[in-house]
Write a structure and sequence with these properties.
It contains eight helices and five strands; from the N terminus they run E-H-E-H-H-E-H-E-H-H-H-E-H. The chain is mainly α.
């Protein structure tokens, strides 16, 4: 399970780990965002995620999930064996999310279910729920408040727990994948 702020590299890291482990990559955003950016109702969202995990377990004996959705967090963590929290510095996150959004805008890249970022939504700085830039800025503190206690909670003591705070720590963790990191 890979968690972290928008722009921290969750999807990229999940793709790398899934390829190395030869298991499916389950991207929670793809299950959550319907066409027109409409959210999937929580019961349907949970059912879609469980179906993906069950299918991945049956086909490959495992999976790598990326995302931060409370509706499924505890249950996914309960099925995981490792949690990786990408807790990069704000300046790194902001550089990445700005560069990523600019590229998506330029390429008119489709994300999930026909959705694309728009200049209007990227720059809607007065609306943190709509602007990925504003969402990422606030996410640094928001996710620290959420994940710091969870990462030290005895409830999750059976999990491998990794808090990666820099790109070099991410690279080192990837490099150690074959050695049980």
């Amino acid at each position: 399970m890979i968690v972290g702020n928008s722009g921290s590299g969750k999807t990229t890291l999940a793709g790398i780990v899934a390829a190395r482990l030869d298991v499916p990559h389950v991207e929670l955003d793809a299950h959550f965002h319907r066409a027109g950016w409409e959210p999937t109702p929580a019961p349907e969202f949970r059912a879609a995620v469980w179906a993906s995990l069950d299918s991945a377990d049956a086909a490959a004996g495992g999976w790598v999930v990326c995302g931060n959705y409370r509706a499924v967090r505890s249950a996914v963590w309960a099925r995981a064996d490792t949690i990786v929290w990408l807790d990069l510095p704000r300046r790194e996150v902001m550089l990445r999310v700005t560069r990523r959004s600019a590229g998506r805008l330029a390429r008119r890249e489709e994300l999930w279910n026909g959705n694309r970022e728009s200049l209007r939504s990227v720059l809607a700085l007065h609306e943190p729920e709509r602007s990925i830039i504003r969402w990422a800025w606030g996410g640094v503190d928001r996710y620290r408040r959420q994940y710091e206690p969870m990462m030290s909670d005895p409830l999750w003591a059976g999990l491998g727990r990794h808090r990666l705070r820099s790109p070099s720590e991410v690279d080192a963790w990837i490099g150690g994948l074959g050695s049980g990191v």
